[in-house]
Design goal:
The chain has 258 residues and is of the alpha/beta class. Helices cover 41% and strands 16% of the residues. It is globular and about 45 Å long. The relative contact order is 0.15. The protein binds 1-deoxy-D-xylulose-5-phosphate (DXP) and the ligand NCC(=O)COP(=O)(O)O.
Length: 258
């Protein structure tokens, strides 16, 4: 049974990694990811997402620790691999969480070799190590979301490990929309979202979401709690400005029939 009053408007968390990538490409201080976050928050987004990695080619620990001071009522979501060791000035995900107290941590099994995140945790695998990490983040007061592939089943095992939400990896869905044959990819997202809802897990979604595909996803899965969007959002903002781009995303979220 699905009650409308259980469904707040899907939250938009703006991933500012791409701003850091542009800054890092010249080694200076511009563009400033913190300024982009300020602008996104002023435009009404509900949260800021960052995905620091040990190789620090994206957002860096020094950027992340500055974010809580500008959040106001908005949430910080830190994504990362809970098993990636500290390296150089990267202190590891748990240390970053202890320094910043984000509302949410999203656990992603990516490695340095990946260009970007391209798969989720497998709920059918041995989850004993993940269970321990989830417990550590929950003890820090964070909501814990686990990144999973669309089509993943057996989510009860993640719930049993203490996960609060899953984040559905929407890269294949976005590619399917671009190809014009979305049915199978959307069915995969829907199957995972339905199972999560039945288990009482929250549902987040992210990767390659854009103004071109977000409404399609939300029309099929209106109970999505949060979408985190970065790459396409900043690409679109090059042409239409960041505040205008965010207002367009908020309009898409507000239009979802509930
Ligand atoms: C976890 C996830 O879905 C990724 O989309 C990620 O956060 C994007 O990060 P990059 O922009 O650094 O590739
Ligand atoms: N969790 C997904 C995210 O934060 C942003 O992904 P993308 O929009 O940069 O692909």
């Amino acid at each position: 049974m699905f009650f409308a009053w259980h469904v707040p408007v899907t939250q938009l968390s703006v991933n500012i990694n791409k701003v850091a990538v542009l800054r890092n490409s010249r080694g200076g201080t511009d563009p400033d990811p913190l300024e982009a976050a300020r602008c996104a928050l002023a435009a009404g987004c509900h949260g800021i997402t960052v995905h620091p990695r040990p190789d620090q080619r994206h957002i860096r620990p020094a950027d992340v620790v500055a974010i809580p001071a500008i959040l106001g009522q908005a949430e910080l979501n830190i994504e990362g691999n809970p098993f990636a060791p500290a390296r150089g000035s990267y202190p590891g995900l748990l240390e970053l969480v202890r320094a910043t107290h984000p509302a949410q941590v999203t656990l992603v099994p990516d490695s340095d070799a990946q260009l970007t995140s391209d798969h989720g945790f497998d709920p059918s695998a041995d989850l004993s190590a993940l269970r321990k990490r989830i417990g550590e983040f929950r003890r820090e007061g964070c909501r814990v979301s686990v990144f999973v592939d669309a089509g993943s089943r057996g989510l009860a095992r993640l719930a049993d490990c203490g996960a609060d939400r899953v984040e559905i990896y929407t890269g294949p869905f976005a590619a399917a929309v671009a190809r014009g044959d979305v049915d199978a990819a959307l069915a995969d997202c829907l199957a995972t979202a339905r199972e999560a809802r039945l288990l009482g897990l929250g549902v987040n979604a992210g990767h390659d979401l854009s103004q071109a595909n977000l409404a399609t996803l939300l029309a099929a899965i209106p109970w999505i709690d949060e979408v985190s969007i970065g790459h396409a959002l900043f690409a679109e903002a090059l042409y239409e400005g960041l505040a205008t781009t965010i207002s367009r995303y908020l309009a898409i979220l507000a239009d979802v029939p509930r």
